[in-house]
Amino acid sequence: MIWQFNLIILGFLIMAAIMSLKVTDLLSASMIFGIYSFLMCLLWAAMGAVDVAFTEAAVGAGASTVFLVATVYSTKRKSSD
Amino acid sequence: MVFLTCGILLFLLALLVLLRVIIGPTAIDRIVAVNMVGTQTTVLLILMGILFSRVDMFVDFALTYALLNFIGSLAAARYLLRTKPLRDTKITVVEVERG
Amino acid sequence: MNMILNIACLGLLTIGIIIFFGAAIGVLRFPDFYSRMHAAGLCDTMSTICLLMGLALYQMHDLSLPNLLVVGKIFFIVAFISLTGPTSTHALIHAGYQRRNRPPIRDSKAKEGSE
Amino acid sequence: METVVSSKPLLATLVSLLVVGPIILSRRRPNLRESWTFLAGFIKLGIVLSMLPIILEGGVIEWTLWEILPGLALAFRVDGLGMLFALVASTLWIVTSLYSIGYMRRMKEHSQTRFFAFFAVALSATLGVAFSANLLTMYLFYEMLSLSTYPLVTHHQDREARAGGRTYLTYLLGTSVAFALPAMIYTYMKSGGSMEFVSGGFLAGSVSGGEATVLLILFVFGFAKAGVMPFHSWLPAAMVAPTPVSALLHAVAVVKVGVFCVLRVITGVFGVDFLASLGAATVIVWLASITVLAASLLALTQDNLKRRLAFSTISQLSYIVLGAAMLSESALTGSIMHIAMHAMGKITLFFCAGAIFVATGKKYVSEMDGIGWRMPFTMFAYLLGALSIIGLPPFGGAWSKWFLFLGSVETHNIYLTLVLAISSLLNIAYLLPVAVRAFYVPPGKGNTKIDLHEAPTACVIPLTLTAFGCLALFLFPEILLSLARLMGEPS
Amino acid sequence: MRALGTIAVILTGALLLYASGDFPAWGEPYSPANDSRVSRHYILKSFEETSVPNMVTAVLADYRSYDTLFETVVIFTAGIAIISILRGPVDKRVRLRRASEKSLRQSNLILAQTCRLLVPVIQMFALYVIAHGHHSPGGGFQGGVIFGASLILVALSFQLQTALDRISEKRAMILAGIGVLIYSGIGLTCVLLGSNFLDYSVLSKVLPLSAIEARSYGILGVETGVAFTVTAIMFAIYANLSSHGRMKGGL
Amino acid sequence: MVDQYPAIVLLAPFFAAIAVSLLGNWKSGFCLPLTVLSLVISLMSSIALLGQVAESGEVVYLLGGWPRPYGIEFRVDPLNGLLLVVICTIALLSSIYSIRAAAVETPDKCPQFYTLYLLLVTGLLGMSMTGDAFNLYVLVEVASLTSYALIAMRSKRAVLASFNYIIMGTIGASFYLLGVGYLYMKTGSLNMVDIREVLLESGLYTSETILVAFMMIMVGVWIKMAFFPLHGWLPNAYSYAPSTASCVLAPLVTKVTVYVMIRMMFTVFGPEYVFVYLGWSDVVVWMAIVAILAGSILALAQTDLKKMLSYLIVAEVGYMVGGVWLANETALVGAIYHVISDAFMTLCLFLAAGAIITKTGKYCIKDMEGLFRKMPWTMVGFVIAALSMIGIPPTCGFFSKWYLINGGIEAGNWGYVAALLISSLINAILFFRVIEVAYFKKESTDSDKEETVSGSSGVGEPPLTMLGPLLVTAVCLLLIGIFNQEIVILIRQAVSSFGPLGFIG
Amino acid sequence: MILVDFIVSRFNYWIYIILMMMGLFAMIAKKNLIKKLIGMSIFQTAIILFFVSIGVKEGSTIPILAHEAAHDPAHQQAAPLTEKGEGHIQNGKGRDALRAEDYANPLPHVLMLTAIVVGVATLGVGLAVVQKLHQEFGSIEEPEILAKIDSDDG
Q1: CA dihedral E203, E204, E207, E212 (to 10 degrees)
Q2: F230 to chain D, minimum CA–CA distance in Å?
Q3: Neighbours of F245 (CB within 10 A)
């Protein structure tokens, strides 16, 4: 574990989570969710959970962000909240 | 120690980029910033590998990250290509009202 | 030998961080999307390459086979980033351009928030 | 007391259930269908009669199916009380079947197959209650009876039937689930897992006076078929049914099942002596007395003949409950005998009401001026039945009334004697005017046009039979008396 | 809804904070969880018992392989679920056989060329990740996602149809089924060979391997199955989500 | 072969699911025979397994051959042995039922439907067999994902219901997962029996973490089983789902979750913790009382038949939770017995409702007039299930109520007894409202007459594939009631292995 | 330094609670369905964060056997558990025997791999349902959809 990284990333994570929930533009929200996801990946790497980090990297960058963007594409981009 | 400092510095710089993500103002700005942070993550992962003295284990998914981050921003770019911008519709509405 | 490697490594890391600092400032401070893109696209790729090279050099302290493999992989990443970085920048700019956000020549503030 | 193990009680119960299949299968051929009913009726009566000698000798017939809850089996047991009730029910089923053939065919009722099928099921349930060896079995058949009579009550399937049926089921199911079930479970727990009826009461000694009072009230209200106020109003509501149903079910089977259950609870669950020692039955005595008087008064105000008879039934049922709750030997005998006597009398009255309706289409007392000489058999039978209910000799009702009076005197409670006396007077007041109108008042203007004639033979024969039954019961009460005495005397 | 959410959040948060005072410190090596015999067994014995240095892989695909089987099933289910939710009545009239040359030309040249260069590399790398899961992080799931991502990349830089020409949705689902079948088939083979479900060591009866090596190879086989499923499903999910389940047009 | 029964029970539907998904695309005629065949195999082996368990006690099946704390194991005791049989039977019956209904309600999605169906059954079977707390989570998710999809297969409102279910279901499953995490943090094990041992040995009962773990697991499970204040997702989801899906979801999902709750309370935490140390049973029983009453009253307010049935499930969940938390053996036995009997009752009701809806296309209770004439056998099944819900002997509903009330009295909780009775009365009103409408003809005015004539001409009994399962279920209701002793003996065997329950009253 | 220790030793748990609560709030209170799903993902990752935090050991390395340890049979013998705090070896090299303290606890990682997969699967299904809702009702805002349903009924 690398606790210094851990502390910093946790701070970032909160920011990213708040942002992705606050932004009314869903495309931005999905992209910020992408940031959230790779921050998580870094966090897990910092905690020594390599496999989890690997999975999160693959899923967060390759799958869930793309899925979200695809859904925003097929539905609507504006959100009321 | 060097690497630790280096990593912390990189993180702090990433914070600047994150600020851009937060203030926006448009999606495409955010995408640029996200892409940038994503690239930086690759470096950070290898750095961590060095800190753990197990670079051989971290390099694989740093590579993955480099590959897949590309897909994320590509999808967003593709989205922007395929859709009409939000403001266009607004303008037409305004014009109609004027007319 | 190790000394030289360490210095080179440190130097590369410093350069990388400085470039990244530039990129970050650029992304944060430039007035419109295209110029921000410019800062990001150029410096981000460059800084990443520098940093990765630095780290690769550090790995070359003891030249065993696994370590060389790691170095090879890092170079692979470098190659990748130098390929994907410009491409994604291109794709984004292309997308922005197609949406008729012409690059503002002078009055950048007015177009702020275009989307 | 000898105990005989025999499957006869089960067979007697099942006969009418088994005949449901053939009845449904032969729905296209009415004659065949009804002969199935008769066949089952006679077999049933035969089985019941074949058990009579053993019972009369003081024996008990038992048959256990299987254990359904720990220490609690689905079991049959025939003793005097059950035998008496079964005898009454199975005899009157045959008579009623005959009557309903006449009635249903004349009225051209729809879905007669369903009618006969559920009739048979209801009879099964009645015998099941009569022969059940424990509270659970009794409850099972009790519910089966409530449900199987629902299609009979709502046979007409019109708005009135719907309302009546709704009241009917709400009261019967509601009270049984809300009162009888918890009381039963509490009993089960208090008695330590046994619910066999024994003639000292299986609960004797294991509950306190307060508990016993509450439980008894729960049981009496829970078996709302007994019609104790305030849970009586299902009975008038159920009068929307075709008359044969009202006759058998609401003069005999359903309501008698209610009082039978109450009797069982008092004798078999608590035990007369135990209740007497606790003094827990006083509440029931007063409830029943109030019901007797109030129902009689209400009966006076009814113009619809069947409703009048229904309120009369409520009042008469409470005699039985009252008799049981008096906890004296004579009163108990009287109330047990009243089951039979009242059944015979009341079924006659209902048959008559039905016959009048079939023949003239009249439902209301006020319309019945002068019909007596047009349909002499019917009205004469009515008179006999009414006198029997009132309790005048030489009719069956006299015996039961006699024992009830005797019991009330034994308890040294002058009020109870008064209640019985007043209600007998009220009986006269609401039953006899019908006969009086029919025979002595000349027909009004509107009625002259209608050609009055006797009801179909299939209707007249049964009511004549039951009317003479009332007479016969007065003359030959020994069997009933000895059956009733079996319960009365402590073993 | 806001009020409800606030109440739920405050209650749950308070509860969790209350418990967090009782936690062992973060990073404590001798906390009950870290020092338990289960965890110690996995760290100390897993190499001995399975000859897989990556403990996570060993635990994932051998000790708790049953979990992983159902993890694969979850993914498989998700694929089928999405298809069954999004698929309307099948529209058979318009069905492009192949992406026309025109559409290829329409797509961005730079993107197309980069993609041509990248996709094979990504796929090779995915295979490497799958196969190398024993010794480094990675394995069937991660490799599968990467492989799937390469197909998504094709769809993104050309047309969805281009990717569907490589592997149609129907084929993807068959592939996914085959993946689960490989996994569970290996498990079933163990049953047929007279041992319990997923007990790979019994494979040594039919393969020229020792029991421990058999476990290692069993893990490899299982990971391959996972990779098949994940690849196919990731792509199928993307194809469905990006085109409303119509398999044409789309992002 | 004999020692592989646990695996066969689970694997038969699992392999069939894969086979259906592979072969179904090629030829959809394969779907149904495969489904039925696999469920028959599963049923037979589960019965064999139950026999084995009843004879020789708990059966443990080590997956991957790893011994207890290291690997995952199946633990089959009489309790989940019974549940396995119930699950297989119900799945088999409703799969036969689905032959026609699936073709009507979800055309062109046959292979997907049957794959999801079999996977759901696999998930439920796995949930009831597994002895590992985390594995349970994975299987819960398998079952949940399939049910989301099965519900969303129909359009319009079902989709929104499915979305709400996804949100609520995820919250529930995640809470459960978090609870398992807390447990793991303190005990270092995931095996249920092992956790219990560690809890006892290390004296962890006073730990706040364990307390919160318990609360999280309970809340999570309650959300999943739609315990009253957390029931919001259930009524819409079950009433708008395709009837084939709701026929298997409604009887099984909540019941298996109740089983999970029992497993967690008694095998993992142990009654001494739940009842003696915490001593919350009164609070939870009162919550259950509220659930029973609220569920019944809400059901009373519904006009849609399936929605009414769905709210009744909420009330029935209250029965079971209350019974489990009454903290005495009778009530626990009653609750477990009610799990079984309620599964069949719900199945029977939903089968009947499905048959009515497919044949007449009517959802509202008031539109169902004259059904006794048009489809008498369906209504016979419906009436038997209704009687069972009300609690009329000799149907199984009576006996479960019997044990539950018995337990309530034993615990001295009169509120629970009263709630059970009131809810029985409300059930009586509910069902007789339906039966009355179906029994009576509508008072036809002139304009209605033609409509009724034209409407009734096409409506008859449903096909045998729908009617058969319905009647079999109805017979099952009677059989379970009549032979309740045998079942209760098995349940007592299981309950006694939980150790002495903490007695409160 | 004590303060830092205190913060470090608890920080992960606090943050996970905050993230989880944010996710929970979004799932319940947000009106937009995609926002709800994003909240759901945050909620799930928070739990994953908690689990991974359990498995962290101070001074341990990643749970992959170091190359030497794996290929030298002498090192495979597990040593008895040593006292706490005996050398924080961040390096996998140069040890005599395999020690459990040196490697992060692999079990939470395994569990969380599964949990991530489940999370993605749920997200995918959720997104599909959202798309279907958009097809049916033309909206992804819950109040609008409810209003549409009401108007359909009425």
Answers
A1: 100
A2: 29
A3: 32
**CATH class for the domain made up of G1-57+105-154:** mainly alpha
Domain ranges of chain F: 279-505
Closest chain G residue to the Cα of A36, Cα to Cα: G42
| D50 interfaces chain F, CB cutoff of 8 Å | no
> Which chains have at least 3 CB atom pairs separated by less than 8 Å from chain C?
B, E
Q: Which residue of F has its CA nearest to E63?
A: F71
> What mean pLDDT do residues D281-305 have?
85
Q: What does the block give as tokens for G98?
A: 């395999």
User: How many folded domains does chain D comprise?
Assistant: 1
| Whether B68 and E149 lie within 8 Å, measured CB to CB | yes
Q: Which of A30, A48, A77 sits opposite B86 (nearest CB)?
A: A77
What pLDDT, on a 0 to 100 scale, did the predictor assign at position D329? 80
Length of chain B: 99
Instruction: Find where tokens 């959100």 sit.
Output: A79
- Taking the C-alpha atoms of residue G8 and residue D84, their distance in angstroms, rounded to an integer, is 88
CA distance G30 to chain A (A): 7
Residue F445, pLDDT score: 46
Domain map (residue ranges) of chain E: 54-242
Q: What are phi and psi of E157, to 5 degrees?
A: -90, -20
ipTM of this predicted structure: 0.88
* Confidence at F505, pLDDT banded by 50, 70, 90: very low
CA gap A33, A72 in Å, rounded:
13
Which structural domain range is residue D84 located in? 3-484
Q: Rounded distance, CA F45 to CA D242, Å?
A: 54
Mean pLDDT by 10 residues, chain B (99 residues): 84 86 80 85 87 83 84 85 58 36
Quick one: pLDDT at residue F123?
Answer: 92
pLDDT in tens, C49-85: 888 888 888 888 777 888 888 888 888 888 888 888 8
pLDDT score of G67 = 64
Residues of D in Cβ contact (< 8 Å) with F422: 178
Touch test F–A: 3 Cβ pairs or more under 8 Å: no
Long-range CB pairs of D166-171, under 8 A, 24+ apart, other chains included: D166/F432, D166/F436, D167/D233, D167/D234, D167/D237, D167/D238, D168/D234, D168/D237, D168/D238, D169/F428, D169/F432, D170/D234, D170/F428, D170/F429, D170/F432, D171/D224, D171/D231, D171/D233, D171/D234
Tokens of D304: 């619809």
Nearest chain D residue to F404 by CA distance is: D185
> Is residue D489 a part of any domain in this protein?
no
Q: What is the pLDDT of residues D336-357, one digit of tens each?
A: 888 888 888 888 888 888 888 8
User: Do F201 and F188 contact (CB within 8 A), yes or no?
Assistant: no
Q: Which residues of E touch B63 (CB under 8 A)?
A: 125
**Chains sharing 3 or more CB pairs under 8 A with chain B:** A, C, E, G
Domains of chain C: which residue ranges? Answer: 2-101
Tell me whether G63 touches chain B (CB under 8 Å). no
Distance between first and last Cα of chain B:
67
Residues C83 and B67: their CA atoms lie apart, in Å, by 10
Q: Determine phi and psi for D63, rounding to 5 degrees.
A: -155, 120
Residues of chain C found within 8 Å of residue E110, distances taken between Cβ atoms: 87, 90-91
User: CB of A20 within 8 Å of any CB in chain G?
Assistant: yes
Residues in chain B within 8 Å Cβ distance of A45: 45, 48, 58, 61
The answer to whether the Cβ–Cβ distance between G120 and E75 falls below 8 Å is yes
Whether residue F495 contacts residue F332, with contact meaning beta carbons closer than 8 Å, is answered with yes
Six token digits for residue F108:
């062109």
Q: Is the residue at D491 inside a domain?
A: no
Average pLDDT over residues E34-53: 85
- Least confident interval from D23-27, F447-451, F475-479: F447-451
Q: Coil, strand or helix: which one is F150?
A: helix
Q: What is the pLDDT of residue E179?
A: 92
